[in-house]
């Protein structure tokens, strides 16, 4: 089922309030906006706080695209040694690693011995404010 909601035609100022109803321009289908490739997209809920520096918090929902090629700098969902994790893929002088966005956690170096599989690239984060 598709739910189309009104989309304001102008940006919202983070200061001066504006009566938004006067500026409704069209509808926004969140499926279209968040899920460009439905056949390759899945959602996953976050557990833990290793990615808070990337504004990914415990309980958030991630929109993940399996068809995207992961590149250094992307936030990805990966299977590492039999466990799923969300981390930033980072290139280092010695190879690749999965980097947390919280200084309380250490990066996961990816070596020949590491059982590693990318499950998808995170496109969006949905969280309550």
Please write out the topology.
Elements: E1 4-8, E2 24-29, H1 30-34, E3 41-45, E4 61-65, E5 75-80, E6 83-92, E7 95-99, E8 108-110, E9 116-126
Antiparallel strand pairs: 1-2, 3-4, 4-9, 5-6, 5-9, 6-7, 7-8
Describe the overall structure.
This protein has 129 residues and is mainly β. The protein has two domains: 4-34, no CATH class; 38-126, Ribbon (Umud Fragment, subunit A). Helix content is 4%, strand content 43%. A seven-stranded antiparallel sheet has the order 3-4-9-5-6-7-8, with no helix packed on it. A hairpin with an 8-residue loop joins β7 and β8 (108-110). The mean pLDDT is 86.
Structural class: mainly beta
Give the name of the CATH architecture of the largest domain. Ribbon
Mean pLDDT: 86
Strand numbers in spatial order across the main sheet: 3-4-9-5-6-7-8
- What is the subunit organization of this protein? single chain
What is the radius of gyration computed over CA atoms, rounded to a whole number of angstroms?
18 Å
What separation lies between the terminal Cα atoms?
A: 25 Å
CATH topology of the largest domain, anyone?
Answer: Umud Fragment, subunit A
Uncertain regions spanning at least 5 consecutive residues: none
* Portion in beta strands: 35-45%
What does this entry show, briefly?
This protein has 129 residues and is mostly beta strands. It folds into two domains: 4-34, no CATH class; 38-126, Umud Fragment, subunit A (Ribbon), CATH 2.10.109.10. The chain contains one helix and nine strands, in the order E-E-H-E-E-E-E-E-E-E.
């Amino acid at each position: 089922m598709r739910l189309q909601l009104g989309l304001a035609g102008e940006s919202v100022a983070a200061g001066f309030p504006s009566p938004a109803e006067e500026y409704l321009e069209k509808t926004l289908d969140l499926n279209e906006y968040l899920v460009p490739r439905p056949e390759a997209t899945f959602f996953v809920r976050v557990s833990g706080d290793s990615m808070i520096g990337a504004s990914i918090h415990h309980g958030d929902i991630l929109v993940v695209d399996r068809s995207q090629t992961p590149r250094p700098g992307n936030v990805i969902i990966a299977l590492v040694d039999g466990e799923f994790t969300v981390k930033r893929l980072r290139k280092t002088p010695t190879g690749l690693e999965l980097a947390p966005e919280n200084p309380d956690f250490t990066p996961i170096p990816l070596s020949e011995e590491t059982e590693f599989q990318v499950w998808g690239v995170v496109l969006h984060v949905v969280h309550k404010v």
